[in-house]
Amino acid sequence: MSKQFDVIVIGGGPGGYIAAIRAAQLGFSTACIDAWTNDKGGPALGGTCTNVGCIPSKALLQSSEHYEHAGHAFADHGIDVKGLGLNLEKMLGRKNTIVKQNNDGIVFLFKKNKVTSFLGLGSFVKAVDGGYEIKVAGKTEETIVGKHIIVATGSNARALPGTPFDEQLILSNDGALAMTEVPKKLGVIGAGVIGLEMGSVWRRLGAEVTVLEALPAFLGAVDEQIAKEAGKLFAKQGLSINLGVKIGDISASKKDVTVSYTDDKGNAQTGVFDKLIVSIGRTPNTNGLNVEGVGLKLDERGFVAVDGDCKTNLPNVWAIGDVVRGPMLAHKAEEEGVAVAERIAGQHGHVNFNTIPWVIYTSPEIAWVGRTEQQLKADGVAYKAGTFPFMANGRARALGDTSGMVKFLADAKTDEILGVHIVGPMASELISEAVVAMEFRASAEDIARICHAHPSLSEATKEAALAVDKRSLNF
């Protein structure tokens, strides 16, 4: 007889493993199925985020930033570095160690919370009395039964039509994190989060990086003022970003990749690169899930169709994270995982899409929450704006990183914060104050009246809030 569980989670990424832990905390017998394996064939829980996404990319971003600082910025601090060298093998080894620590941490959490882990590919078999039969295809094949099923199968890198990833010359995020030598010339198709972050890593380590972006505007989802400031800073660093590009033929030889494209003026161009990273978005992963076998509905874009509570068209089947609508962000998946587990328990799990923060971990970092100025204009919302530059912030000067600014957008009548946008040092940490403020529907005046430690980068947040009322104190 198949093992029976109250909740079975298919997928062990940020959404899946968090959903499984929360379900177990609520008293449900819980299983989590995940197919990622480490180099020894054991479980590598954490999904794309932990294995080839958020965690390893941040490790390399940090290491490459240290390398760049040692070669350039340290001299301004009176630190002379002689004989600077790059040990890329050790840098990648450190990244792999951090990944494994996160993998092992999730294994520990599963044991602590009594979540049963299955290593293999999970798929629907059929509806049965008491729920759904799920097949686990691993080293051996078995079936388990769950009353509630949470689909958390994530997403896959989108390839250009006719140009599959070989992870040797034409790279997804996976291959971009594992190059064993620094390419002399690196091409990046797509100026989104992954393209900018991976381009930044390899530029710092010595590659000549050319970014090709189809859209005419840089970072169109970002507040326009912030995006323009970031674009200037990236160009100053030596990141060549080409907008309005139309990609033509891509051909790979044994040693390089040739990309034919048309620039924004209609001129034919050719780029020859040692490596090419393709980062044009991600597609929902329903491969091998056997959705047709049980009639699980997908929408027109291939996502699992869900309502506002993450319910699918099938009773007691839920779906979360990258495989459903909404932003493809690890923390969004985590929040949905917790909310679904609590809804199964009869509680009122909640995810506020309006206060989900976004971060690009370049240098400077870019982070935002809420609406942009262009969105407010398009919606006809009367607003006030306030900005404060980090060059006027004492802590930023001490750090030696004064690039960027903080920007507040508030309702013209009520002063409620509608959006906060940051480009600058530690933006990923500073944005949390804005998220909390917006969750409690705070006004810009509320932030302006809160005492912030001096000297701190967070004072720039307070000053931007003051600037909404045109009374900034330090600029």
Automatic annotation (TrEMBL):
Coarsely, its chief localization is cytoplasm
The cofactor required is: FAD
Q: Where in the cell is it found?
A: Cytoplasm
Q: What class of enzyme is it?
A: oxidoreductase
Q: Which GO terms describe its cellular component?
A: cytoplasm
Q: Which InterPro entries match?
A: Class-I_Pyr_Nuc-Dis_Oxidored, FAD/NAD-bd_sf, FAD/NAD-binding_dom, FAD/NAD-linked_Rdtase_dimer_sf, Lipoamide_DH, Pyr_nuc-diS_OxRdtase, Pyr_nucl-diS_OxRdtase_dimer
Residues recorded as binding FAD, renumbered to this chain, are K58, G122, T153, G154, S155, D322, M328, L329, A330, H331
Q: Which Pfam families match?
A: Pyr_redox_2, Pyr_redox_dim
Per the database record, which ranges form the Pyridine nucleotide-disulphide oxidoreductase dimerisation domain?
Answer: 356-465
Q: What is its EC number?
A: 1.8.1.4
Query: Where are the catalytic residues?
Result: H454 (proton acceptor)
Catalytic activity, as annotated: N(6)-[(R)-dihydrolipoyl]-L-lysyl-[protein] + NAD(+) = N(6)-[(R)-lipoyl]-L-lysyl-[protein] + NADH + H(+)
On cofactor binding, the record's note says:
Binds 1 FAD per subunit.
Residues annotated as binding NAD(+) are: G190, A191, G192, V193, I194, G195, L196, E197, E213, G281
Q: List the disulfide bonds.
A: C49-C54
Any one GO MF annotation of this record: dihydrolipoyl dehydrogenase (NADH) activity
Give the FAD/NAD(P)-binding domain ranges: 5-337
A GO BP entry: 2-oxoglutarate metabolic process
Stored Gene3D superfamilies: 3.30.390.30, FAD/NAD(P)-binding domain (3.50.50.60)
Which controlled-vocabulary keywords does the entry list? Cytoplasm, FAD, Flavoprotein, NAD, Nucleotide-binding, Oxidoreductase, Redox-active center
Question: Is Cytoplasm set as a keyword in this record?
Answer: yes
Q: Anything further noted?
A: The active site is a redox-active disulfide bond.
Instruction: Identify its protein family.
Output: Belongs to the class-I pyridine nucleotide-disulfide oxidoreductase family.
What is the name listed in the Swiss-Prot or TrEMBL entry for this protein? Dihydrolipoyl dehydrogenase
Recite the lineage of the species. Answer: Bacteria, Pseudomonadati, Pseudomonadota, Betaproteobacteria, Burkholderiales
